[in-house]
Fold this sequence. Notes:
The structure holds two protein chains of two kinds. Chain A is mostly beta strands. Chain A has strands spanning 3-7, 10-14, 19-26, 33-38, 44-50, 56-58, 64-68, 73-78, 87-94, 101-103, 107-112.
Amino acid sequence: AQSVTQLGSHVSVSEGALVLLRCNYSSSVPPYLFWYVQYPNQGLQLLLKYTSAATLVKGINGFEAEFKKSETSFHLTKPSAHMSDAAEYFCAVRNQAGTALIFGKGTTLSVSS
Amino acid sequence: EAGVAQSPRYKIIEKRQSVAFWCNPISGHATLYWYQQILGQGPKLLIQFQNNGVVDDSQLPKDRFSAERLKGVDSTLKIQPAKLEDSAVYLCASSLEGQWDTGELFFGEGSRLTVL
């Protein structure tokens, strides 16, 4: 069965610091992996996705993620945090039927000045 | 392009009452999803439609939840009777196809339900 585990429910960084949000997956088939962001009182927005092409995926707002099969990981990074990055981030994997997404519990990112 | 529209944004009801949420997906999107997001958890799929047919409702509590997508466009999710544990944000999402490669789901802003 497909699942994702996000390590750390809350991450705090200073403005300008590296952002690292961790996601590990479990999948019985080659995975399709996603990161979504949710700003307060807004819907989820796609940040980036891995669909078996390049292992380093670049997304919007300067975020990127690297697919590592040996580590079953898909961690999200950004070299320099901005205050506007404060939000909740969800890692997701496509279900085995290929028709829907299974989400992790989310990581809240706080950015301080 | 208009996004996924949901209403109402907020609803407060007493337990055992009923509630209905409405969703209008992005024009042309064949697939519509209802997810439940309980505070502190990730979204959980309740039901998935392709056009007006149900693809997956395995996690829908059918004794109290029902959903329909008449004419393959708008959808309504109903809870009757509501329980305290139904307090959550109900997210509607749509995508172009059911079996897709891009995998992008477009989400509405959600309907926040509080059951007292």
